[in-house]
Design a protein that fits this description.
Blueprint: H1 3-12, H2 21-33, E1 36-40, E2 44-48
Antiparallel strand pairs: 1-2
């Protein structure tokens, strides 16, 4: 993923993303791998995943 792609996504802020679905999914997978959890419980958002005991 090119850093310019991420920068363009960030600059759009709350506006809809215009990147291709494959790019958006790649970003989501990378963030999830680092412990980010995507939410959609009435209000979309993100949070850090709860650590697993042990």
């Amino acid at each position: 993923m090119n850093i310019n792609t991420i920068g363009a996504m960030e600059k759009r802020g709350a506006a809809g993303l215009v990147s291709g679905l494959d790019k958006i999914q790649a970003v989501m997978r990378a963030l999830e791998a680092e412990g980010v959890e995507f939410l959609n419980h009435g209000r979309p958002g993100v949070r850090l995943r709860e650590p697993t005991p042990g």
